[in-house]
């Protein structure tokens, strides 16, 4: 299983008047971790496009467990869970100092052929190549 993690210092512009991160900014944190994960196997959005596929997010689930606060450090771990027919990535956000779980999430992306604009029902061979796996 492939994972990547990032540390984010919660910036002032991401919090509300109570110094708590606004819920919508968690999506941005997931994106930063997702990009780090994709880079780890050399298939970030630039590589995806160059390979002839775009991978839009078609589903996102987020469960807020605790609150991230201004000036705290948070760790975001992105883990690739599925890749045969889609990219399913699970996320865990924790407070670095306490280790407390703050958020759990998942995203699903599907491959779209950029020429035909059709959704692929199986992940393209290039993804398996990038992951160093043979196609089932």
UniProtKB/TrEMBL annotation:
Superkingdom of origin: Bacteria
CDD domains, alphabetized: 4HBT
Alphabetical keyword list: Hydrolase
InterPro entries cross-referenced by the UniProt entry: HotDog_dom_sf
EC number: 3.1.2.-
An example molecular function term from Gene Ontology annotations: hydrolase activity
Root EC class: hydrolase
UniProt name for this protein: Acyl-CoA thioester hydrolase
Species name: Rheinheimera nanhaiensis E407-8
